[in-house]
């Protein structure tokens, strides 16, 4: 169900000879049997790219959301040391209790909001691609903040009485 992932001119992802590709898929039940028809298409370049695309996750695996909390904040960050980089896209991911998400870049003493998703919906997980790659100077830090609704007012919450751990 995702659209094609294409990179800007001069960017490519390295796929070394003999690599294994591993898929992580999320299935959402809809009440009827269906068949997975996942397909992968690759486009190879005939020349070395100017930039190699790498993926980095920003995660906080040790958070706890108390039962009933309706606006619980969780923070995570990743430093860009020791090299300059470009951000091509951001992918907020917060599961059923996710309420909102924000990415902020701190570079040279300034903080800039790169993406603000005030109404996160797990059913519409999207990769937000920038029109132009965002330059990130060496020494910068990318911050991710997610807010969660573990209350009974969240219709997607499977159990508002449960403590949720990251």
Short description:
With 166 residues, the protein is an all-beta fold.
* Overall radius of gyration: 18 Å
Overall form = globular
Low-confidence stretches: none
Compressed to H and E, one letter per element, the order equals EEEEEEEEEE
Overall pLDDT, averaged? 92
In spatial order, strands of the major sheet run 4-9-6-7
Which bin fits the share of residues in helices? under 10%
Count of individual helical segments: 0
Q: Quick one: how many beta strands?
A: 10
The computed structural class is mainly beta
Oligomer: single chain
Give a quick account of the main beta sheet: strands, pairing sense, barrel closure: 4 strands, antiparallel
Describe the structure.
- The chain is mainly β.
- It starts with 10 loop residues before the first strand and ends with a strand.
- The protein is built from no helices and ten strands.
- A hairpin with a 2-residue loop joins strand 6 and strand 7.
- The chain has a four-stranded antiparallel beta sheet, with no helix packed on it.
